[in-house]
Design a protein that fits this description.
27% helix; 527 residues; Maltose phosphorylase, domain 3
């Protein structure tokens, strides 16, 4: 549209700054592929291929060399390559990745839109080592890097994207699986900059992180990437929408005031609700993974599937009540082909072995002493752990079944001392679920409560006003805490049960204060 103020007289040239033209082409490609895979109809796919081809006619070594204004085209082009095996699309991904660092910015500026970090355009991609800028753009960009490495084996890109993941896991991720500390620019902050009340943690960022971690798993085959994916799915992703599916969060903060933090029904920029519709239906594809020699059991989700491992086809059923119960069972309903030498790799979640994240960013004050137990056909077996997976090998037969029992302790979480926002505060989790306190469950307020470090508690599925909103109910925690009251000039404390609910279940009732990180003594309550 030549009349549009972003046009500037030439197609595409303002994409880096304000426009989302390449982004829109990418999302058309993603939607078309999903529709084709679901229905077999290729009308929309053919349109998307034409759009992608037209875009690459402009963006190439002899044409426009410019990083996209909003990353995601890299991922979409790889998906198109996977479907068509047209090398042009894979090389198109590489082209857009290589465009980072070409545009000149001012590296001395603290403004991310001036120094280029907002777009991850401050350095060539292969020189980047830390997560920077707009969190959604960044995580889509890193997903594209991982995709490129998977198909190319490019060592320089692998070094860069692995270092970036390590930076996120060790210094820039929230306990809730949220990403992006700053409201300003919806951006990653500095190392250990993880505020609670002003946390941004855009829903789209956790969706993008799910894509990124899936791709890092595909690249490296390590369970730690699925751990982070799972943490995002069960906490910030689910927090992104209300129980009725009619209200949504754009930011997902970790603390809110007495007025509460109500979910709006819609947004002027509606990326988060639609991105949830994009992610949630794809989750069944994350439960399992395969290579030529192994079946990976990644997510503990009740399901039925058929998986191809080399020349062998397995019919599989998973049963259990995860994430509230730690016992899950995988049964081989059918085995066709040659199962000799095939492995079943069962993910051992980091939280089950006292590692909430793959770093020292968070740790438990009360580590579990209960081991992860695995049984094969009803008999407990010993196992070796490789890259976060228990490896089981046999000549699998129809009727074989594997059971895993995960310790479901209530864990009190503390932060690395460098994360000064959380000094004197603890959070609580059980299994993959992070919990929070809402005033509505605790006499209307939270600023007079604390839970001492080392406090014990219980979990319960007893009926309650909040559990009645969820089909099948939810787990709640009852922690042995304290309440402070003013008696003249003296502050007195008394025992009080502090009730916690899953973080994703918050803000489904009356307006209420909320805390994920809770003080451990009276002196910290103002935090």
């Amino acid at each position: 549209n030549p009349l549009h103020p972003w046009y500037n007289g030439q197609k595409w040239v303002s994409d880096w700054n304000l426009s989302h033209e390449t982004f829109n082409v990418a999302e058309l490609v993603e939607a078309a592929i999903a529709y084709y895979q679901a229905t077999g109809k290729d009308k929309l796919l053919n349109c998307a291929i034409k759009a992608a081809d037209n875009m690459l006619d402009y963006f190439n070594e002899d044409g426009i060399k410019m990083a996209p204004g909003h990353a995601v085209v890299e991922m979409a082009l790889v998906r198109l390559y996977e479907l068509t095996r047209n090398e042009r699309y894979l090389q198109g991904c590489k082209f857009f990745l290589d465009c980072r660092g070409i545009r000149k910015f001012d590296p001395t500026s603290g403004d991310q839109r001036v120094n280029g970090k907002y777009w991850q355009d401050h350095l060539p991609a292969i020189e980047q080592r830390t997560a920077e800028g707009h969190a959604v753009r960044a995580l889509y960009f890193y997903s594209g890097m991982a995709d490129w490495v998977r198909y190319s084996g490019d060592q320089a890109y692998e070094t860069a994207v692995t270092a970036i993941w390590d930076n996120i896991a060790s210094k820039k991720c929230y306990i809730t699986g949220g990403f992006g500390a700053r409201d300003n620019n919806e951006a990653f902050g500095e190392d250990y900059e993880l505020p609670n009340a002003s946390a941004y943690c855009e829903t789209c960022a956790s969706v993008a992180a799910s894509f990124f971690n899936l791709r890092m798993f595909r690249l490296h085959g390590e369970g730690k990437y699925v751990d982070m994916l799972e943490r995002a799915l069960y906490n910030t992703v689910l927090d992104g929408y209300g129980i009725a599916g009619k209200t949504f969060y754009y930011p997902n903060r970790l603390a809110s005031t007495a007025r509460g933090d109500a979910r709006p029904e819609w947004f002027g920029t509606s990326c988060c609700p639609t991105n949830l519709c994009r992610l949630i239906p794809s989750v069944p594809g994350y439960i399992y993974a395969t290579d030529d020699d192994a079946l990976y059991w990644n997510l503990f989700v009740a399901s039925t599937a058929t998986a191809k491992v080399g020349d062998t086809s397995f019919g599989i059923t998973i049963t259990g009540s995860y994430p509230y119960k730690g016992e899950m069972k995988l049964t081989f309903n059918s085995v066709e082909g040659n199962p000799s030498g095939k492995s079943l790799k069962v993910r051992i979640p980091g939280w089950a072995v006292n590692k909430p994240v793959e770093s020292d960013l968070y740790s438990y004050t009360n580590p579990t002493t209960t081991p992860v137990v695995i049984k094969l056909n009803g008999e407990e077996v010993s196992y070796t752990v490789e890259d976060g997976y228990a490896v089981l090998q046999k000549d699998w037969a129809e009727g074989d079944y594997v059971e895993i029992s995960l310790p479901m302790d209530i864990h009190q979480v503390v932060s690395n001392p460098n994360l000064k926002t959380n000094a004197g505060l603890c959070s609580y989790e059980r299994g993959p679920i992070v919990y929070c306190a809402e005033g509505v469950d605790n006499s209307g307020k939270l600023d007079n409560l604390f839970i001492p470090e080392g406090a014990t508690g219980t979990n319960s599925t007893a009926p309650s006003p909040i559990s009645s909103l969820f089909k099948g109910g939810i787990q709640q925690l009852r922690m042995n805490g304290k309440v402070c009251t003013q008696n003249g000039t003296e502050v007195e404390t008394a025992d009080r049960v502090v009730r916690l609910i899953p973080y994703f279940a918050r803000a489904n009732r009356a307006a209420s204060p909320m805390l994920v990180w809770i003080p451990t003594d009276a002196s910290k309550m103002e935090q």
